[in-house]
Amino acid sequence: MSKVTYTDPEFIEGLRHNQDAVLRALYKKYYNLVLKYVVNNSGSSEAAADIYQETIIVLYENVQKPGFELNCQLQTFIFSIAKRLWLKQLRKSGHTLRFKEDEEAEVVDVSEEITEHLKKESDIEKMNACMESLGEPCKTLLKDFYVYKLSMEEISEKFGYTNADNAKTQKYKCLQRLKRYFFED
Amino acid sequence: MRATDLFDNYIFGTTSDGEKTEFENRLKSDPEFALAFDKHKTILEGINQHEQRTHLKQILATIHQQEFGKDAKIRSLKEETFIKKHGKTFAVAASVAVFAVLGTVTVLSTGGYLLKQQSNAITDLKRDVTELKYSQDAIIEGIKDATRKPLKKYAPANIEGTGFALNNKGYFITSWHMVNNADSVFVTNTILDRASAKLVASNAALDIAIYKIDNIESIKNISFPFSFKNTGSEIGDKIFTLGYPRRDVVYGEGSVSALSGFNNDTTMYQISIPVNPGNSGGPLMDEQGNIVGVIRGKQSSAEGTGFAIKSNFIKQTINNLENDSLKKDLALSGKKSSLKGLKRSEQIKKMEPFVFNVMVYKK
Predict the structure, then answer these.
(1) What is the pTM of this model?
(2) Å from A179 to nearest chain B CA?
(3) DSSP tally for chain B: helices H, then strands E
(4) What is the CATH classification number for the domain harbouring B201?
(5) What was the ipTM of the complex prediction?
(6) Before B277, cis peptide (omega within 30)?
């Protein structure tokens, strides 16, 4: 049985090093906090789960930055991010804001983190749209080459091309198409 | 050489020192080249980010499902106070293969929870227990099932997966990719204590291995429930499987999606059952409880795409055996499945003694 509780710095270190157990423990620890907030403020449990997962993504991305330091309790950071994301979501859906705000819960200013996250989110969304237009096998082929660093021989075998040169030509065509979608839209 | 190849070589660091200098000089002197390089980097970064994000979302959705899905605490909050759900922030695949995601997580140079490089088109679904997965297993089992009877202490196997009996003489079938190069193989299940097994036949091309369990005292008097389907399945046929993606037997259901597997391999079905590492070698059943295939793997590039070897290739493997007495021993029963017409839960109860957690030890 593994360690079940972690201190804030241990959570941060663990996340930084992509430790599954830490991510899981973290996820478990603060979910109810966010769930309670969202549910008390006109949200469903599904919406809470979405907001919470996005919150963890924001935390994760910040933790990955060199020199990241937490200036408040992890719980406060998480709650602040989740709150901002949820308010944004409510506003977007045109919901009348009627809050039963939890006055107990402390918040910190996370505007910078949120702005940065939204920018990244929109970049990823754009790439996602391009990837979708690109379709298969291009999508997988490009990821295999550029993310998973498969060799052209492996790619050739995987996709059933006659040889590595052929695979390379395919990769080139896929990449050109992706560039066209991405930069011309 | 194409400009993109120059870019890739430079980024991947496969350029020689001389070429590197030349490349850098060109960046300075040729603005068009420099711009193209910037775009190239943007795209690559975008591809990486996209994949990382997709993957992280899947992991979180999986954790959520495991920790707070259905039977968890969430229900204690009053559902009736929830208003209709808002637009989803992101669409996440809830059926993400847990161990496939969490179990093979590794860090790439760019950072992030990313899948380990998959060099095979089909991901074998064995559980490499010696890697991350063992600790994962222990964590999940430790946390979620603290009340369960303690597992007997044995050295952890290198690989675990599933197998199912061909009859009640102790013969069972499993995936060749799991047992390939095995030093020893043990099986266990809900009623069978850990028993050793010996390889009796195999067909690597079909990914089939047949083993015999040494001690079958505990199951020999239980009626053998399976029959093997003679005709092929159709697209859309409902199917299900039992397997050991973790230490407990796990049920999964779905349908036949295609009559061929990866790269149009006609020895396989494509199936829409969420299969995880550890499901390899499990039985693929139709609704009547006939065996229609053996779980083989899943497509590494697509979620929810599994593959199973068609059951007639099990027959073919047996028929091609040269050892006549073994062939006789393995002759598949022509009897009707005793599972027909039963409720699924009843079918599963009858199947369980004949579906094994296969533990493979390597030297």
Answers:
(1) 0.49
(2) 7
(3) 10, 17
(4) 2.40.10.120
(5) 0.89
(6) no
